[in-house]
Amino acid sequence: xxxxxxxxxxxxxxxxxxxxxxxxxxSQQTSAPERTSxxxxxxxxxxxxxDSNQHDKDKKIGSNxxxxxxxxxxxxxxxxxGRLTGRVSxxxxxxxxxFEIKLTNDKTAAAKKKENSKPNNTLPSKVKPGKVxxxxxxxxEEAPIQDINFYDKERVMDPIDAQLESLDIAALEEKEHLxxxxxxxxxxxxxxxxxxxxxxxxxxxxxxxxKHDQNGIMLNAITEINPTIIAEAEQLDNQNESNxxxxxxxxxxxxxNIGTITLPTSAGTxxxxxxxxxxxxxxxxxxxxxxxLILGKTNMSEWAAAMDDGVPNGYSGKKGRSKNPYSSxxxxxxxxxxxxxxxxxxxxxxxxxxxxxGSIILPAGAQSVVGFxxxxxxVSNEGIIPLSSRFDxxxxxxxxxxxxxLTTNVLMDEASQTMLSKDALxxxxxxxxxxxxxxxxTAILKKIKKDLTSAGATVIEGITLEELxxxxxxxxxxxxxxxxxxxxxxxxINRSPMxxxxxIIAFNKTNPTRNMKFGQSELVASQNxxxxxxxxxxxxxxxxxxxxxxxxxxxxxxxxxxxxxxxVGGSVKFLAPIAGNxxxxxxxxxxTESNQPKSLTFVSKRNTDIALLNMGYAYEQISKNRKNPVxxxx
Length: 634
Description:
Blueprint: H1 2-43, H2 52-61, E1 69-74, E2 77-82, H3 90-95, E3 103-105, H4 106-115, H5 145-149, H6 153-164, H7 169-179, H8 184-192, H9 198-213, E4 222-225, H10 229-239, E5 251-255, H11 282-289, E6 293-298, H12 302-305, E7 315-316, E8 320-321, H13 337-344, E9 350-355, H14 361-366, E10 370-373, E11 393-398, H15 401-411, E12 429-433, H16 443-454, E13 458-463, H17 469-493, H18 501-510, H19 512-515, H20 521-527, H21 533-557, E14 562-566, H22 572-579, E15 583-590, E16 597-603, H23 609-623
Parallel strand pairs: 5-6, 5-9, 12-13, 12-14
Antiparallel strand pairs: 1-2, 2-3, 4-6, 7-8, 9-11, 10-11, 10-15, 14-16, 15-16
Helix pairs in contact: 6-9, 7-9, 9-10, 15-23, 17-20, 17-21, 21-22
């Protein structure tokens, strides 16, 4: 009997062993080809072939993260847009001629999302061609769209409601039409003629933020509100000053990386969302000295788009994702997305953004406002959370070129207040760049050329710039090194609660769903940078030399007063910030089907900022393209 039991047990064990071994080997044969196929597909080139040396360099850096597709739900549809943000590469601006917009139903979207759960490599990335960051943190599973769109509403609404209690809302709304679309000169005239007070002006802006930004279509452009803005405005009304500066009493909103002594400054992060600096940034001092009122802070692409390639434009862990007011189906672009929204929607008289490479110009073009990035070094970036202190430049986003000019004068401490001229384009040679939308003979492009000619300019078509691929790669590596060094120094000097980039990366891991919803691979790449200060300086000097030579040679050889580029693409928008040239983006029209804003960007020689603003003003006055967004549910 015992022998029979032993034989039966041995038989059972043998059967299970054979069966298990067979199933394991079968699964290995099935899964192995899938992994091989995935690796092969990932390693295939996504753009034109590179030489063998470049290929070897790419392999050392990591697998190619050149392309990215963002898929986001809107109602019962899904939106797919080509990604383009404030940290751009020359390659990405060439490829992104237009946003790719495709709406699908929920079932198709769900299937597509499941299919594309691995990194998608079909559209250009925001900045990092040929580069993946070592030690990449995987993003957490994406929550429903309502969960990523909006955080901490009370943070903005509480100080608004507390101040609006003392105001007659019906009276404010009766005067609101006077403010919508008004420039600084008109606002000052309304106040001088007693049709409006500074207190009412601030109240109108607060009420509009309440109605359209925090409620209604919920644009989510504002992250902080000055709890004493109404009291400060009332004090200015009582002072009745004469010979007031141009910005006197004008409510201003600041990008959330610009330091203030009374409001938190976070660069869009959860880690720093309550950090109040011990002093104002240099430009904030200048604004206050000229009588401007700080109304609040604006949402931004977290860390100025240096968080992770997967972070949507206009998204911050602090406040969520901001929208484009011209359509929820359009990308707001970044990283100064909230400042562009505040300007175009009349949430303030003036908005201030910052640019390292494209962060003012791109959202201005996407949201139909004037964006001006001054020549490098003319405006102080002291007190601004850095991406790269050698390139970071603050500048205005406004509804008119005149307002950008008046604001820039204050930021640059420029005493000259000469009037801008409608004749500033007469006898000027303007080169039309031909490497982006300027190649497409659209109705908007025809109008651009006609308006420039009508303003007295000679338009030189077919202007091209060299494609400097090595500049792309070296610039990305440089930004990683600059960010780590400059941020650590900034946090320590200003006694931040988080003193290093390393501590912020660790903090984000404590609550990844909120703190790093889309990952933090860019932060990790910067932390892993080993480039020394001297090496970084050498690379920067070489990049600046190359880009300056390229722009200078085109301007000089063609005897151009400025280069213009239509649309959000164009290599000049990548090269100019590195070279330090000024850039001015102006509304150029709207797509007849999608209502997508179109823009025109002027670039001129370094330190010719006032001349550039003059040329832009002349174009604006004859073209008169801008129209306000309709702030209703779309």
